[in-house]
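In this section we walk through a basic example: taking a raw amino acid sequence and producing a predicted 3D structure, encoded as discrete structure tokens. The instruction is simple. Fold the sequence below.
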Amino acid sequence: MEYEYLTTIGQDSHRFEEGVYNPEENYIMMAGHRIPFDRKFSANSDGDVILHAVTNAISGYTGVLILGGIADDMCLNQGIKDSSRYLKRALEDMGDAKITHISITIECLRPKLKNHLQAMKESLGAIIGLDASRIGITATTGEGLTGFGKGEGVQVFALATIRKPL
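The resulting token sequence is shown next.
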């Protein structure tokens, strides 16, 4: 069988909320993985910027608006806050196409992500059915040149390589 390979890009960002939180709730979600942190994302959903960026990359392939469209209904009208559900919904629109590789870059000053990168890859891989070795994640502070690099939130870009049968 012959295949066509396409590359898509998705982006998402969230700022952090101000305030003090219950110690049991001091975490943020990234790639479906809980990361201990002293703030929450300012978002209607769980604010998982990695899952949102990957969802947007899939929307770039399918043309189906999930975030800002279908996910708004899921979140605001059905009370579904788990971003993995939005990503799974986006995957339904791919038909016979398959994601073969994902590359993610994260910009933030904090939280420090080095010790969470492998767990994030494994969690994301489990959600989309891709081996963690086919997922690359890098993180940078961007030398503090943006609000993300100054600790105000997190920005993510995700590239997805998609194989489509001809």
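Looking at the output, two observations stand out. The beta strands are 3-15, 27-30, 33-36, 98-107, 135-140, 153-165. The two ends are 8 Å apart (CA to CA). In the next section we compare this with other chains.
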